[in-house]
């Protein structure tokens, strides 16, 4: 868990400004495909729900043109299959930095429900 998409350095939850809460996913494409990650994104999150401002907006940051194209296709297919407007935005990761959130935000749902993380 962390923050991405803003301009100033070292955001915090109390000083998030123009950042968005984000999850950085590092993956090995020989073990899991980008397409599978997009599917999981849509399963765990609702790309058709409107954003709640910058902090909670729905966004996919891509690192290369292949990811951009796959994400565009995924979002187009989602709009067709759900017959709903997709509110998820696509932006390049270049030009932004990912900042890890404070420790109390790591595994927040598990902590809040009393479950231990994986």
Task: Describe the protein in words.
With 118 residues, the chain is of the alpha+beta class. The mean pLDDT is 88. The strands form two sheets. It has a three-stranded antiparallel sheet with strand order 2-1-5, with no helix packed on it. It has three helices and five strands; from the N terminus they run E-E-H-E-H-E-E-H. Helix 2 links the parallel strand 3 (59-62) and strand 4 (89-92). The chain is globular and about 40 Å long. It has one domain: Peptide Methionine Sulfoxide Reductase, Chain A (2-Layer Sandwich).
CATH topology: Peptide Methionine Sulfoxide Reductase, Chain A
The main sheet orders its strands as 2-1-5
- State the low-pLDDT regions, or none: none
What integer value in Å does the Rg equal? 15 Å
Number of domains: 1
The coarse overall form would be globular
What's the end-to-end separation, in Å? Answer: 14 Å
Helix/strand order: EEHEHEEH
User: Major sheet: size, sense and barrel closure?
Assistant: 3 strands, antiparallel
Strand content: 5-15%
Summarize the structure.
Helix content is 30%, strand content 14%. With 118 residues, it is of the alpha+beta class.
List keywords for this structure.
118 residues; alpha+beta; Peptide Methionine Sulfoxide Reductase, Chain A; 3-stranded antiparallel sheet; two-stranded parallel sheet; 30% helix; 14% strand
Write the layout of secondary structure elements.
Elements: E1 2-4, E2 20-22, H1 34-44, E3 59-62, H2 65-82, E4 89-92, E5 99-100, H3 108-113
Parallel strand pairs: 3-4
Antiparallel strand pairs: 1-2, 1-5
Helix pairs in contact: 1-2
